[in-house]
Every structure is written in C-alpha cells, then in structure tokens.
Amino acid sequence: MANSVDLTSKEWCDLIFEGKNKDFGAYVMRQTSAKRHNVAFMWIILGFIACIALYFGVSKYLDMKAEEAREALLKQQQETIVNQMSEEESEEEEVEDIKQEEQQEPEEVQEAQQQVTELAIVPDEKVTQPPQLTTETQKNEADISAQNVEGQLGGLVSDIKPQEAPKPVAVVEQKVQVEAPKVEENKVFTSVEQMPQFPGGDAALLKYIGSHLQYPPMAQEQGIQGKCILQFVVTKTGSVGEVKVVRSLSPDCDNEAKRVVKGLPKFTPGKQNGQPVNVWYTLPVTFKLQN
Predict the structure, then answer these.
(1) H-helix or E-strand containing 261?
(2) Facing residues of 244 across strands?
(3) DSSP letters for 150-203
(4) Is 243 helix (H, G, I), strand (E, B) or coil?
(5) Mean pLDDT of the 240-259 span
(6) CA 152, CA 148: separation in Å to the nearest integer?
(7) Measured between alpha carbons, how far is 263 from 192 in angstroms, rounded to an integer?
(8) What are the CA-CA distances from residue 259 to residues 57, 220, 263 (Å)?
(9) Which of 27, 36, 122, 229 could be a cystine partner for 247, CB 3.0 to 4.6 Å?
C-alpha cells in the first residue's frame, strides 16, 4: 500500500502536518517541492541538449578550420613548386650563359695567337733592290728599237739578237719566332684554353658534394630549399682558393656550401698558353628537402 501513496500530493502533505503549525515554512516547502523538482529536471534536460548542440557546433567549426588550413597548405606547396621550377630554369640559363662566355674567350685568344705567329719579319739589310739598267744597256735597247723601225720601213734590218733580260734577284725572308706572352703569376682568369677538371669529372664532383653536404637544421625547420651558386678559385696547384657566393639561398645554406667546397680534393689545374694558372670555377649547390 505504501507504493500507491503519492508523496508529493496535497493530501499526503495535509496528513503529515495535521494538528501542526501550517504557517511554518516547512509546510510551504513541502507543497512546492514537486514543482521545484519538475523545473530542475527540465533545466537538466535543456542543459544536456545545449551541451550536445555546442559539442557538434564546435566540432563542425574545427573541421571547417582544418579543411581551410589544408587547402592553404596545399596552395602554398603548389606555389613553392612553381617558384622552384622557375628558379631552376633561370639558374640553368645563367650557368649556360657563363659557360658560353668561358668558351668564347679561349677562341679569341687562339685567333690572336695564330695572327701573331703567322707574321714574317724581314730585316732591312736582307732586302735587295733589283739592279738598275746601265747606260750601255739602255743604249743597246735604243738601237734595237731603231732597227725594228727601220725593218718596218724598208726591210733593211739584219738579224738582231735581243739582249737577255736581267736575272731576278731572290729576296730572302726570315721568319722571326714570336714567343707566347707570359702569364701573370697572381692573375685569376675567368676562362682559359684548358679549364680545371675535378678528378673523375663533373659527375664525381656532384657525388662528392651530395655525400658531404649537411642540411642546416634551421633551414630544414623553415622549409628552405633551392640552389645557391658559388664561385671559387682553382689555383695553379689545383687547390681551392677564394670562395664567394654569387647567388644566395640563405645564410646557413650558403655557409654549409662554402664549407664543403673549401674541403674539395685537388683539381687538375687550368692552363693558358701551356702554363698552369689560377681560374674562377662556377658551381651550383642544390638543397632539397626529402618528403
């Protein structure tokens, strides 16, 4: 029977407070307890619904922001790839122009040397003038002319033997050997007849650079990649001299490339007029991040 009693009903409340002071606050609280419970339960349900709605709203907002970030990153990567391709094309054109200039200068030097070596100088004392005709010879020639005229007029000319022409005098020419111009000891050439050569060729040089090059941590964290172009002096002994940066990528990458170049093994030195000389050598160094 106790299970059928509604503890929140007015009858039950009056039964409990029968014969007691109903003006006391407990009676009022007992009467309104059911209403308070219902209101509290409704607020709990509304709060739960609000939390669920807030959760799904925040999740959707975060997903939208993540998608925008991915699209921005993809767009940046595409722009980076396009810029790298354009930079590589421009760098290849610069290297080709430098090589063409280096190849043109030796041809001009060779032509100048050929022109110098083909000169033949004849001293003044070796040159002789042809002998002058003497007065007697001139007289004989005049007589012959007169006799020819007489033969034409009257046919009274007797057999005349013409005078022999003077023998030509040989002119002796003496070629003077012109020595090749001496090369200045400390001069550094941009191009020579025989350019410096790394042991094993260009492929061995690139392999050496790739095996000794260390990617700078700061440049790796910042995503810096590309090429820096160096120029260094290959001395007449084949060692590496002064090193300078023609096109910079970043300070860390430039310093790392210079470090590797300064440690290169000896080259076969360049030659000009058969003599070993100091020559500028151009080398592009590539930094590329591994995906």
Answers:
(1) helix 251-262
(2) 231
(3) HHHHHS-PPP-PPPPPPPPPPPP--PPPPPPPPPPSS-EES--SB--B-TT-HH
(4) strand
(5) 94
(6) 6
(7) 24
(8) 55, 18, 7
(9) 229
What number of other Cβ atoms are within 10 A of residue 192's Cβ? 23
Whole-model pTM: value is 0.41
Taking only the tens place, the pLDDT of each residue in 218-233 is 999 999 999 999 999 9
Answer whether 174's CB lies under 8 Å from 123's CB: yes
Q: What are phi and psi of 282, to 5 degrees?
A: -100, 130
The residues, any chain, with a CB within 8 Å of residue 232's CB and separated by 6 or more, are 240, 241, 242, 243, 244, 261, 280, 281, 283
**Residue for token digits 């004392």?**
125
Q: For residue 120, is pLDDT > 80?
A: no
**CA 272, 278, 284, 290 torsion: positive or negative?**
positive
> 3-state DSSP call for residue 282?
strand
Q: What is the mean pLDDT of residues 191-206?
A: 93
Kind plus residue range of the DSSP H or E element containing 244: strand 240-247
Residue 244, both tokens: 């300078």
* Phi and psi torsions of 228, nearest 5°: -120, 140
At 226, is the secondary structure helix, strand, or coil?
A: strand
